[in-house]
Design goal:
Helix 3 packs across helix 17 and helix 13 packs parallel to helix 15. The chain has a five-stranded antiparallel sheet. It folds into two domains: 367 residues, Orthogonal Bundle (ADP-ribosylglycohydrolase fold); 141 residues, Sandwich (Jelly Rolls). The chain contains 19 helices and 14 strands. By secondary structure, the chain is α+β, with helices and mostly antiparallel strands. The protein starts with a helix and ends with a strand. The longest helix has 22 residues.
């Protein structure tokens, strides 16, 4: 027998025993509810600490390691910097759906709730939610036919909840991925979240990051590229457990530079490369809270999301009470997480409630010890992975559409607060739709030397913001549509003008086309429509999803 393995096994057994965790001969594992709650609380704190610590670095280093000197220093007060992070509030939307409708909630209801969310989104999340709002019901909302970024990182950064409410129950993480992950992700994009959820589920019972990672692999199809990436990371770590930077370079060579692994990829948002940095931190961090977060962060790319996932898994193994004081003190427990119903204590309560329900569904039970302490008795079951799906060679769509009654339940605020009033003040009789919240749209007292300017922004990377008006063009007169529109100095967009759905103008608005680099003036002759009622649409169409706001200085219809 390997003596080192025997010693390590005995040491691990003593740690588990000291926590009151036990594996029984009847094929169950026992977890005192107090220990569950402490570890689950630690998992949430790990997410919070990881995303807050990495926040200043997000996407500033792509395909390069963040220099050690550029890594922010952790300060305990940073623990309150994560309340507005999408890494947290999106998954709390899923928890709220489970709380309100029960653990058997349908994927269609999950889609309706996600469609009604009011926070800004990007990448696969944004594409999936836009599809839902347009009536494309899940699972088609994530299908590559309708979603151009199905392998993005989104569900990977939102799946932590699925393991935190499923201690020792990886099948729950798999099933929840099929329900919530399929709202926005497909193939590897969904498997990434199921893998993360399964890591959390195992972290309640296992301390060794290698075993956590290898156990979680059972929850996803072995032939998917994401599983291949995880196996590679473990093999590279075992071959060289001292030099994480060398393993990082192997990740780059295979999962960034080899086109076979870039299929259906959205560049640096791809789940495989970012998932690799999560695993990198867990393995090479060697259970050190700081090093786990720092290594996952220094991998670059989505360098706040990745340390959040790695920190969450590790902190689950440690438990809240065992965390250094720099991480487990100072949280504002009265504050609500942005766009959610939950403060931190309320979040812990809803997770425990759902864990109890999933435990019963999985055939487990709650027992009481002689001293009256509650204990989760959890059946040991191997998970059944989802079927293999390839985002670059997807299966057929499900032809899934929301019914009229379901569409009536999608009542999200289509416009940022105050936008209808802003448009009415700037251009009476004009209407607005598909205006997103980015760049603080609304009236500006002045912009680029001109007073009383209306700022609008596209809804997402594909959907332009539309200003429209129906008007009767007078007969016997010349009628002109006068437009003055500007762009942000850091970005550009396309101006599209439609009349009765016919496109009559499509022109870029950028420093080259604008006078003085700021303003574009257009006069469009509407006289050919004299005597007719027409619908005019002015579209702020995105071109690269970077500072795409339109600044309207004038919108006027003039007859003479």
């Amino acid at each position: 027998m390997n003596v080192t393995a025997l010693v390590n096994g005995l040491l691990l057994g003593s740690i588990i025993a000291s926590l009151g965790i036990a594996q029984e001969p009847d094929g169950t594992r026992r977890l005192p509810v107090s220990v569950y709650r402490d570890k689950m609380k630690g998992g949430w704190i790990g997410q919070i600490a990881g995303v807050a610590w990495g926040g200043p670095t997000e996407f500033k280093w792509q395909d390069q390691i963040i220099p050690a000197a550029e890594m922010p220093r952790w300060r305990p007060e940073m623990i309150n910097d994560a309340f507005g992070q999408d890494d947290l509030y999106v998954e709390m939307t899923f928890l709220r759906t489970l709380e309100q409708y029960g653990i058997d909630v349908s994927i269609r209801q999950a889609g309706i709730d996600f469609a009604n969310s009011g926070y800004p989104l990007w990448c696969a999340n944004n594409a999936g939610r836009t599809n839902l709002r347009r009536g494309i019901a899940p699972p088609d909302s994530s299908h590559p036919q309708f979603n151009k970024c199905p392998n993005d990182i989104d569900y990977q950064i939102e799946a932590d909840y699925s393991g935190l409410i499923a201690p020792g129950m990886p099948q729950v993480a798999v099933d929840l991925g099929q329900k919530f992950g399929r709202l926005m992700n497909y193939g590897d994009g969904m498997y990434a979240g199921q893998f993360v959820g399964a890591m959390y589920a195992e972290a309640f019972f296992e301390d060794d990051p290698v075993r956590i990672v290898e156990t979680a692999l059972r929850a996803i199809p072995p032939d998917c590229q994401y599983a291949e990436m995880v196996r590679d990371l473990v093999a590279w770590y075992r071959a060289d457990p001292e030099h994480w930077e060398a393993t990082w370079e192997k990740c780059q060579a295979k999962y960034r530079r080899d086109p076979v692994y870039q299929q259906a990829s959205n560049g640096g948002i791809d789940c495989k490369i970012n998932g690799a940095y999560v695993v990198l931190g867990l393995l090479y961090g060697r259970r050190d809270p700081d090093q786990t977060i720092v290594i996952s962060c220094r991998g670059g790319m989505d360098s706040d999301c990745n340390p959040s996932s790695a920190g969450g898994v590790l902190f689950t193994t440690l438990g809240f009470e065992n965390l250094p004081a720099r991480f487990n003190t100072g949280l504002d427990e009265a504050r609500k997480f942005s766009h959610t119903a939950y403060s931190f204590p309320e979040l812990l309560d809803v997770c425990e409630k759902l864990a109890r329900e999933f435990l019963q569904r999985q055939g487990g039970r709650v027992e009481r010890t002689a001293s009256g302490e509650e204990v989760f008795v959890i059946p040991i079951k191997d998970p059944v992975p989802s079927p293999l799906e390839l985002s670059w060679a997807p299966g057929p769509i499900a032809q899934s559409r929301f019914t009229a009654d379901e569409m009536a339940q999608i009542t999200y605020a289509a416009l940022p607060p105050g936008m209808k009033e802003a448009v009415a003040a700037f251009a009476p009789d004009w209407q607005i739709k598909d205006c997103g919240p980015d760049m603080n749209p609304g009236l500006r007292d002045q912009w680029e030397g001109r007073p009383h300017v209306l700022c609008v922004h596209p809804l997402d990377a594909q959907t332009g913001c539309v200003l429209s008006r129906t008007v009767t063009v007078p007969a016997g007169q010349q009628t002109l549509l006068r437009l003055l529109v500007g762009h942000d100095p850091r970005g550009d967009f396309d101006l599209i003008v439609r009349v009765n759905d016919d496109q009559i103008l499509h022109t870029p608005v950028n420093p080259t086309t604008c006078q003085d680099g700021h303003w574009l003036r257009q006069e469009i002759d509407l006289t050919p429509y004299a005597g007719r009622e027409i619908k005019i649409e002015l579209v702020n169409q995105p071109t690269g999803w970077s500072y795409e706001a339109a600044y309207w200085g004038e919108i006027a219809i003039v007859s003479r």
